[in-house]
TrEMBL record:
InterPro entries, sorted: Cro/C1-type_HTH, Lambda_DNA-bd_dom_sf
Taxonomic path: Bacteria, Bacillati, Actinomycetota, Actinomycetes, Kitasatosporales
SMART domains cross-referenced by the UniProt entry: HTH_XRE
UniProt-listed SUPFAM superfamilies: lambda repressor-like DNA-binding domains
This protein's name: HTH cro/C1-type domain-containing protein
Alphabetical list of Pfam families matching this protein: HTH_3
HTH cro/C1-type domain boundaries: 35-75
Origin species: Streptomyces fumanus
Length: 149
């Protein structure tokens, strides 16, 4: 990771954090602490990132992506840890519609069934797999838990 990759990632993630309502600019705004608490990470990890000292580890990125409502795939690519070639999007997983032969996008639930994911592991599969999808509005997942405002 280069200094410019860290700088570019930090500029991007700061904007995402602000748009999600976390006050990270004022010393007493509490946004860094609230973000750390909601993500279940140490406040120091947030501080080091925002001060451009270090990139978060994979687990911290995963937790931040979840709380901020962005795909983990996007965070990993923007951080420079992986490339789009490393994490390619599936080429339109689809299935035949029984009524007219047209193709429709495969849902995560259908994918879980096709892959034989046991019922007791299905919810976890949907959460983990859903993190790699590009747009939350297009997902076939239960609604995200509401964040404290």
């Amino acid at each position: 990771m280069t200094v410019s990759e860290l700088e570019a990632f930090t500029v991007w993630i700061e904007e995402v954090i602000r748009r999600r309502g976390y006050d990270i600019d004022s010393p007493r705004g509490g946004g860094k602490s609230r973000l750390a608490d909601e993500a279940g990470v140490h406040r120091a990890a947030i501080t080091r990132l925002l001060q451009r000292q270090s990139m978060p580890d994979l687990e911290t990125m995963r937790r931040l992506a979840h709380v901020l409502g962005i795909p983990l795939r996007e965070m990993l690519i923007r951080s420079g840890r992986l490339t789009e070639e490393d994490l390619p999007l599936p080429s339109s997983p689809d299935r035949l519609d029984r009524s007219g032969g047209e193709r429709q996008q495969l849902t995560l639930e259908e994918a879980a069934t096709a892959l034989g994911i046991p019922a007791e592991q299905r919810e976890m599969f949907l959460r983990v797999a859903g993190q790699f999808l590009p747009a939350p509005a297009d997902r076939d997942l239960p609604a995200r838990r509401s964040r404290r405002g």
